[in-house]
């Protein structure tokens, strides 16, 4: 028996040993499967961007290291099988390998915030244990694999948002454990699947930012666990289903930016836990149901831009004590403002916007009891009467106050000027009286002031000049008088100034030249007199200028020729005399020029604006001739005005003898100089003269002193054929000295080419040459110094940040410079190397193009195309250059477009994320127009998006602006040259974009 028992024990041991061996062998097979799957993923998705991420994956993901220790990989504690795979924000590129489906124990997969492209593998639906799948913020395209929605019973959370996914949502949804679904910000179409209602565990649904159509399924009301429902920014129609009232746990409901109709269902009053309700930008009618007051936890209520009518429930504020933002603008709501007084119960209220409705009544002193946190109070465009209550002084946090377009009367209470944080004040289009008090100068944070169309009288207080941050000032259509205070012209940040239709007197002073940033000036219908100030010529950012209906006299100053950007110019109804200056024909962007009712005489110029001008723009003058299309009399061939004749007589009688004597003296002196120079040339070494005839000549020794013997400490940058140094000349002038390396092949030819080119061009957006220094062993160009250095440094510096408006201004400056080189210079000049390092910024952040004269070509009369060896930098170079070697202005347009896209995205075209399969243009084009917010430079979002928070459409405004900017960049970078824009077409589009930004 003992023997048999021992045999049984041995047999059992052998069986167990065999099972263990089999298990070990199986584990080894499974291990090799996981390893192969991970290596396949590594091969399919390359890592780019941050070098640290790249090094970690390359160094760590090797077959000789256990994959359970690889970065991003976590294995089960029981067996060496992958259960978690997290490589989020690793700058991964390439595609997602379908072999990931072999990770059969995987429960967590997170690859979000990378640059992965291609489609989502259908095989991911075969992962039986996968609970969380995060692929958002990539560049994935194609349709959503149906297997993910109907074959993954373990899935709890899925996020595919912010990609380029297209097609419809899967109609069959079998996700028994699902709690969160997000496919927002894609390109999805079709209807919302009713099958979602079968997912009884759903808590969060994000479908916003697509192109979904149809109605909101009533079956969604069965999702009793739902907390978040985001269906906004689609194309949904029909009425809001009453079944939403069944979602008693709902906290966030976003249905904005759709085409929904019908009324707000009273069943929404059942949503006792609702904290945010967004119904804006629809076609909803009816009233705000009183049942909605049951939502006592409401924080944000947004119903703007609908067709709502009737009064607002008077107890709204008492019922919603946690309310922070109330937005009802753009409806037809009526009745009184009792509900505003009830908002005193909302101690965290910071945004109140009820503008563009039909509210009546008066503003109560009780509004001073509103939250001390209130920052935005917008009640404009209603039917509000009475006075502005003094109690508003209690709203000490107020940033923006708009009461315009009402029927307010009386004086502005003095207490209003104690609101020191106020940045925007709109009181225009009322019946306010009195004077503008000097205390307004204490509000130093004000950026926008509009008091237009009231009955204010008296002077503009001199203290207004203390508001150094002021950008917009509108005092039009009042009864203001006296002279414009000189302090006003010291507001260097002013962008828009409207003082029209008042009673201002006096002259335009030379101090107005300080308004370098101004783009809009309207001084029409006043009593201004004297000559039009030549200082206006310094306002080179001006787009709109109206000086009509005043008493200006004298001739139109020649300095106005420098208004390169002006589009609207009205000098009518004055007493201007003399001839119409011909330079008006050279102002490229003027679409409206009105010179009517002056005392102008002589020939009407031809070209550009005069080819489109109407007779009403020139009528009422004394003796104009020419322009037969406008039925003016022809000019006599020997037309000489009386003033001109007398001038010539004086010239002949008094000046001519003196001139003759001077000419004789100069002739003798020149003979002497020539003889002396010939002797000097023979005696001295053959030193080459400067290539440009500038008044100032700078010797080598002064440049050496200026740059501390060309010290590395003064080095600004290195180029392909030399170095650039910062220097201070003997008279203190700061300059940039470009010293050529004469050992580089073609350097001498480049120097000569740059001299010829720079000597022929003059434009405010091109770097100005001051002098040259040249001998047999040294050649240098002396250029104006740009204190803000290059655009490249601003884009990629940790300590500097450009706002969206600054970026637009820079590209507008660059486009104006290129427009000059391509279309306005007598010879077409091609830059051939547009890139950020060749864009320099002066002290006012005005952009100047540099290096446009080095080894470049010139096309005579736009007819010839020349080949050159220097056709740009990789990434910015037009694709046709590599095929034909020929260069045209369309190559510059392509480089400009790439530069433009770089400014918007903050990505270099040679970024490691771009390769032969995906370049910058394709990447941007894939995101345009629906996902532009995903590719924009984060610095823009941090600055401009924050600034737009005060606007109820802030995000939409920024998105539209970015889309219009990107559209220009994409049109400039089309593959075929003949499909690209010309720079003369780019400039007006950028100006329109800039105007839109300024308005918003």
UniProtKB/TrEMBL annotation:
Its EC number is 2.7.11.1. Keywords: ATP-binding, Cell membrane, Glycoprotein, Kinase, Leucine-rich repeat, Membrane, Nucleotide-binding, Phosphoprotein, Receptor, Repeat, Serine/threonine-protein kinase, Signal, Transferase, Transmembrane, Transmembrane helix. The keyword rRNA-binding does not apply. It is found in: Cell membrane. GO terms for cellular component: plasma membrane. It is an enzyme of class 2 (transferase). Its main location: membrane. The chain crosses the membrane at residues 654-673. Belongs to the protein kinase superfamily. Ser/Thr protein kinase family. This is non-specific serine/threonine protein kinase.
């Amino acid at each position: 028996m003992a023997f048999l028992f021992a045999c049984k024990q041995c047999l059992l041991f052998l069986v167990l040993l065999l099972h263990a061996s089999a298990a070990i062998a199986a584990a080894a097979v499974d291990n090799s499967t996981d390893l192969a799957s991970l290596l396949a993923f590594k091969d399919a998705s390359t890592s780019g961007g941050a070098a640290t991420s790249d090094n970690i994956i390359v160094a760590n993901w090797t077959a000789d290291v256990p994959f359970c220790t690889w970065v991003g990989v976590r294995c089960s504690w029981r067996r060496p099988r992958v259960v978690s795979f997290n490589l989020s924000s690793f700058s991964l590129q390439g595609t997602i390998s379908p072999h990931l489906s072999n990770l059969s124990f995987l429960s967590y997969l997170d690859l979000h915030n990378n640059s992965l492209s291609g489609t989502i593998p259908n095989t991911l639906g075969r992962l039986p244990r996968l609970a969380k799948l995060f692929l958002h913020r990539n560049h994935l395209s194609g349709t959503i694999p149906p297997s993910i929605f109907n074959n993954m019973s373990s899935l709890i959370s899925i996020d595919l948002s912010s990609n380029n996914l297209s097609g419809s949502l899967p109609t069959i949804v079998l996700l028994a454990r699902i709690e969160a679904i997000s496919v927002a910000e894609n390109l999805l179409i079709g209807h919302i699947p009713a099958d979602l209602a079968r997912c009884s565990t759903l808590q969060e649904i994000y479908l916003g930012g697509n192109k979904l159509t149809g109605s909101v399924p009533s079956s969604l009301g069965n999702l009793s666990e739902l907390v978040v429902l985001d269906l906004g920014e689609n194309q949904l129609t029909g009425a809001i289903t009453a079944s939403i009232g069944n979602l008693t746990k709902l906290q966030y409901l976003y249905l904005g930016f759709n085409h929904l109709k019908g009324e707000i269902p009273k069943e929404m009053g059942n949503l006792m836990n609702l904290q945010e309700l967004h119904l804006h930008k629809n076609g909803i009618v009816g009233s705000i149901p009183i049942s909605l007051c049951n939502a006592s936890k409401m924080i944000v209520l947004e119903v703007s831009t609908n067709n709502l009518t009737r009064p607002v429930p008077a107890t709204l504020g008492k019922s919603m004590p946690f309310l922070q933002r109330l937005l009802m603008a753009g409806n037809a709501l009526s009745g009184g403002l009792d509900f505003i007084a009830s908002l005193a119960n909302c101690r965290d209220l910071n945004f109140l916007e009820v503008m563009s409705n039909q509210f009546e009544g008066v503003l109560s002193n009780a509004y001073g009891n509103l939250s001390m946190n209130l920052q935005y109070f917008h009640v404009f465009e209603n039917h509000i009467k009475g006075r502005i209550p003094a109690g508003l002084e209690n709203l000490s946090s107020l940033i923006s106050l708009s009461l315009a377009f009402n029927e307010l009367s009386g004086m502005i209470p003095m207490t209003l000027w104690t609101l020191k944080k106020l940045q925007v004040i709109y009181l225009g289009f009322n019946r306010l009286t009195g004077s503008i008090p000097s205390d307004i100068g204490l509000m130093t944070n004000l950026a926008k002031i509009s008091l237009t169309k009231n009955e204010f009288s008296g002077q503009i207080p001199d203290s207004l000049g203390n508001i150094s941050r002021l950008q917009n000032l509108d005092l039009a259509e009042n009864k203001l008088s006296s002279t414009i205070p000189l302090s006003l012209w010291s507001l260097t940040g002013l962008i828009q100034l409207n003082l029209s239709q008042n009673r201002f007197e006096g002259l335009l002073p030379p101090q107005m030249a300080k308004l370098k940033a101004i783009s809009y000036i309207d001084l029409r219908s006043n009593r201004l007199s004297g000559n039009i100030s030549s200082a206006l010529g310094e306002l080179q950012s001006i787009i709109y200028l109206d000086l009509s209906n005043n008493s200006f006299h004298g001739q139109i100053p020649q300095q106005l020729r420098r208004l390169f950007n002006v589009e609207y110019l009205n000098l009518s109804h004055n007493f201007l005399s003399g001839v119409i200056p011909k330079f008006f024909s050279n102002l490229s962007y003027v679409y409206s020029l009105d010179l009517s009712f002056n005392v102008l005489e002589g020939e009407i110029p031809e070209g550009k604006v005069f080819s489109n001008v109407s007779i009403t723009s020139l009528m009422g003058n004394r003796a104009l001739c020419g322009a037969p299309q406008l039925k003016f009399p022809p000019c006599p061939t020997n037309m000489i005005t009386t003033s001109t004749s007398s001038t010539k007589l004086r010239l002949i009688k008094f000046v001519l003898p003196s001139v003759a004597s001077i000419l004789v003296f100069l002739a003798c002196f020149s003979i002497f100089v020539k003889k002396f120079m010939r002797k000097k040339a023979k005696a001295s070494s053959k030193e080459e003269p400067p290539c440009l005839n500038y008044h100032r000549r700078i010797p080598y020794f002064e440049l050496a002193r200026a740059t501390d013997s060309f010290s590395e400490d003064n080095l600004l940058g290195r180029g392909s054929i030399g170095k650039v140094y910062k220097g201070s000349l003997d008279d203190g002038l700061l300059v940039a000295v470009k010293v050529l390396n004469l050992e580089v092949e073609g350097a001498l030819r480049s120097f000569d080419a740059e001299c010829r080119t720079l000597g022929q061009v003059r434009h405010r957006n091109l770097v100005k040459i001051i002098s040259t220094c040249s001998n047999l062993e040294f050649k240098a160009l002396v250029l104006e110094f740009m204190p803000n250095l290059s655009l490249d440094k601003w884009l990629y510096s940790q300590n500097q940040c450009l706002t969206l408006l600054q970026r637009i201004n820079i590209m507008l400056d660059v486009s104006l410079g290129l427009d000059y080189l391509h279309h306005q210079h007598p010879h077409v000049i091609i830059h051939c190397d547009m890139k950020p390092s060749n864009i320099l910024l002066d002290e006012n952040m005005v952009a100047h193009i540099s290096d446009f004269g080095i080894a470049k070509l010139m096309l005579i009369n736009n007819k010839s195309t020349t080949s050159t060896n220097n056709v740009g930098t990789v990434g910015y170079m037009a694709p046709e250059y590599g095929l034909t070697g020929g260069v045209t202005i369309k190559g510059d347009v392509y480089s400009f477009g790439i530069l433009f896209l770089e400014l918007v995205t903050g990505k270099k075209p040679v970024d490691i994320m771009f390769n032969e399969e995906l370049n910058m243009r394709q990447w941007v084009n894939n995101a345009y127009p629906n996902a532009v917010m995903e590719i924009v430079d984060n610095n823009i979002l941090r600055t401009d998006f924050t600034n737009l928070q005060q606007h109820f459409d802030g995000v939409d405004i920024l998105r539209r602006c970015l889309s219009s900017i990107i559209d220009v960049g994409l049109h400039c970078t089309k593959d075929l040259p003949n499909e690209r824009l010309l720079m003369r077409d780019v400039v007006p589009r950028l100006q329109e974009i800039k105007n839109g930004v300024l308005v918003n």
